[in-house]
Amino acid sequence: MESLLFGSDYSDGTRSEYRQQSCTFTLRASSVRTDNMIRQPHDKFAKQFLEELLSDLTEDDQELIMNLTEAYQEARAQAVQEGVQQGQRQVVGNLLRLRFGSVDEELSRAVDSLLQLPPDDFARVLLELSSLSREELLARFVSHG
Question: Is 58 exposed, middle or buried (0-12, 13-18, 19+ CB in 10 A)?
């Protein structure tokens, strides 16, 4: 898929356009220097565009961009993690629903405990789930205290 990123009209009537063809640029939060900000310059036009764009910014603006970039990356990582957990919760809920007919409050608490397990233990429990009784599952993963 191709999309127009920017274009420039010149006084002689010509137009210069840069079209994105599935290339990605990542700004580094560690440096304000333009030559360090482009992690993967896929072509010279994109690099030139970013350099021109950044050269017009004040130092405060560049610092703000770096802070926002870092905040965005952290928020994105958090969203990805939440998405993974939501997917795991859905899979476990579906497995429990198939195994026991429904997921009540007690089984929901077991799901919460299961999701806290390290990945290897989590996978092992999923494999064991078809052989565990409801009582065994609740005894292992729901504290009654």
Answer: exposed
Does residue 32 surpass a pLDDT of 60?
Answer: no
Tokens of 29: 């939060």
Q: Number of helices (H) and strands (E) in the chain: give both, helices first.
A: 6, 2
- Direct distance between the N- and C-terminal alpha carbons of the chain, in angstroms, rounded to an integer: 56
**Pairing of β 15-20 and β 3-9:** antiparallel
Q: Quick one: tokens of 88?
A: 């795991």
Residue reference for tokens 């990123």: 5
DSSP, collapsed to helix, strand or coil, labels residue 20 as strand
DSSP 21: S
Q: Helices 105-115 and 59-100 meet at what angle, rounded to 10?
A: 130
Short-list 119, 102, 115, CA closest to 141: 115
For residue 76, give both structure tokens: 């994105």
Express each pLDDT in 41-59 by its tens digit. 556 777 777 777 777 778 8
Q: pTM value?
A: 0.53
